[in-house]
Amino acid sequence: MLRSLALTVGLFVLLAMAPAPPVQFSAGQFDKDVDLHGDPDAADLVIFIGGNQWFVMPRLVAAFQADHPEIHSVFYETLPPGVLAMQIERGALAVDNLVLHVHGDVYLSGQKRTAKLLSEGLVSAPETYASNVLGIMVRAGNPLHVRSMRDLGRTGVRVAMPNPTTEGIARQIETSYRLAGGEALDTEIMQSKRAAGTTVFTVIHHRETPLWIVQGKVDAGPVWLTEAQYQQRIHSGVVAVALPPPQNVGASYVASVVTGTPHAAAAQAFLAFLLSPRGQAIYRSYGFGPPVSIKE
To answer: What is the pTM for the complete model shown?
Structure first.
């Protein structure tokens, strides 16, 4: 009986010492943030990665942790690279009334955005890990027969356009507009149609584009081809239109360790995993190209 009592007391002590589960506070879509994942306070690794790779992250992080069981907790943000760069520069991110002071360990973005941070001494020399090309998202069945960037200039086609202020992809899209129809097409889509309300800039991220298409707010939107292919793959009601090579534009994705990271070893391990056969196979499975340097 004394042994039974001791076991009971011991179990009670263990339960008392175990951390309590977090308080659940959720109101469906009203307070759901799909771009912040994990516990920043308990993280052994913090990853800042461009939002166009959000659908890769669950599988990528799981595979990385399987190879590195010593890294128990990973926190990652899948936001526009411009927003993440400002977070590195300023040290905090505000989400409505919530302010997060999170120090990123790894920054994954395009070459130009990373080059700026490198010049400021905020990140280490980058490693190229993947590449991509542009495509167009349209409603399933493509009822307006959008086949190229030129079609986005038509009066009856409502366009979701990534915001040039924070989204690096806007630069490649405008280059593609010019390749397809010169300055006239770029001006038509970016200025004339915007003034008419038939080009709508995203508020935060072109993650909004497929939602707006399904909701009927817009008809099409230029994005990275992998994003359009993913939406088609999950049967969201959105399909991908591949662009003809003469008017397509690509980009390289690079990864850097953030200067002063408290998790330098974990950050280096993650970069090595990105370039490993297993990491590369995960990116290829989602349609990303190999780690080649594309001039931007």
So the answer is: 0.85
